[in-house]
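notes to self, project folder thing:

trying the whole complex as one job this time. last attempt i did each chain seperately and stitching them together was a nightmare. two parts in total, labels are on each line so i dont mix them up again. if this works i'll redo the older ones the same way
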Amino acid sequence: GVTQSPTHLIKTRGQQVTLRCSSQSGHNTVSWYQQALGQGPQFIFQYYREEENGRGNFPPRFSGLQFPNDSSELNVNALELDDSALYLCASSMMGSLPTEAFFGQGTRLTVV
Amino acid sequence: QKEVEQDPGPLSVPEGAIVSLNCTYSNSAFQYFMWYRQYSRKGPELLMYTYSSGNKEDGRFTAQVDKSSKYISLFIRDSQPSDSATYLCAMSRLSSASKIIFGSGTRLSIRP
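result (full assembly):
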């Protein structure tokens, strides 16, 4: 399955954070979503073969990395209070159906 | 205007009732219409999906898509307390390279 770490973390405004995702074995695409409390997930960006392959309406301080070993990272710089949310990654195979994306359990980030 | 609109609820019904959850959308390019179930502090899991228009039934769950009205529904028959969760409608274009657009979610509670 898709696993994310850590499960929870608390950061201070202005700090930087790195969230990690381990994709389903063999999947070559990972997408990241931000889910604020009481809202649906919002697309941040997608990585395919270690390159960004589409981005939602998020500023450049949100960045990502994808590694050849089925792992990926979401980095957020200069944290703001509004960045508090559940961050979800979803892994898939490029060319598969959108219904074949599998979500992790998420990392809950609290910015104080 | 959001691409996908969903009544956030909360919705509370007695056990055994029929539940109707609905979403509207504005982008006629959507081809996959999905319903995810999300338990508290967990990642969303795909419940069922429909490709293009029509109905799909899976046990107690029925998904309907009316593309002419840009309106989708999920019906739950014989609702159970274990169905209590947040239900997210979601839509996407044809491929996994396309981002998934989520509604804001409806929080459903089934009273024993």
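what i see at first glance: Chain A has no helices and eleven strands.
need to look closer tmrw
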